[in-house]
Amino acid sequence: MTAEPKRIAVESSVADRGPTALRIAVGGQLRRLREGCGITPQAAGDHIRGSAAKISRLELGRTGFKERDIVDLLDLYGVTDTDQREMFVDLALKANEPGWWHHYNDLLPQWFETYVGLEGAARMIRTYEGQLVPGLLQTGDYATAVVEMGQGRNEPERRVELRTKRQEILDVPGGPILWAVLDEAVLHRPVGGTTVQREQIEHLVEMSAKSSVTIQVLSYRSGASAAAGSSFTMLRFAERDLPDIIYLEQLTTALYLDRREDVRLYREVMDRLATQAETPERSRALMIAAAAAL
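Below the sequence we write its predicted C-alpha cells.
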C-alpha cells in the first residue's frame, strides 16, 4: 500500500494578518511535522546545522526562515509532494517580509513594532484601560487628541494613520477577538473636547455590537479595581506552545511578560476585572447614557 503524502495545512487567511501571524503559523506546522515523525528538536537542529534552541525559535515563530533550512527540514520530515513543498517554502519566505507597519518604522520604537506584529497574530486580545480608550477602539479625532497631548507631536497625521490601520485586524477573517474592560473614568475624561468625546463614546457603542468585540465598563459603583489602576493587555495565541504575553506600556519602553507565574497573576486579575465590571449589556447602556449627557 502506498503511503499517503504528508499534507501541510496553513490557513490562507493567516497571511492577511501580517508576517508575524504567518511566521507563527508556519512554525507551528513545522512543529507538528516534526512531532508526527517522532524527531527530537536536537535531531532536527543537527540536521540543519543548528541546535534544539534554533528549532524552538523557528517553531515558535520568533525568528525568520532561511529557505535552505526549510527545504532540509521538509526532507527530514518526509514531505515529498512538490506542490506542497513549493507552497510551504513560499509561505515561509513570505513570513520574512516586512509588516505593513514597516512604512512607519521612523515613528515606531522597536519595542512597539514588536507589539503591533503580535497584536495582529493574536487569537484574543484582552485589555484593561483605566485612563484612555484603547488604540484599537479610538476614532480618528480622539486618536489625534491623544497623539497631540503625548510625546509624538512630530508627524501627527501619520501617527493617527498608523493607529487607524492597526484597527483593521478586527475586520480580517480569522483575526483576533477583542475583549476590553474600561474604567468608567474613560467615559468622562474629555479628551479632545466634548464633541470628540461624545463621538468616541458613540463609536464604542457601535463597536460593542460587533461579534468580535466585547466591551465592559468598570463602573464607579464597583469600588476599588483589582488592577489597582495599572492598564495592561494580554495577548493569547492559537498555537498551544505559545504562552500568553502580558504587555505593559511605559513612557519610553514596554515590558513583555511571558513567565508562567506573571501570566497567571495577570490572568487572574483580568478575570476578576471582567467579573467586577458591568455586563456587556449594562456597559452598553452606561456608554449610551454617557454620550447623551455630553
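The longest helix spans residues 19-37.
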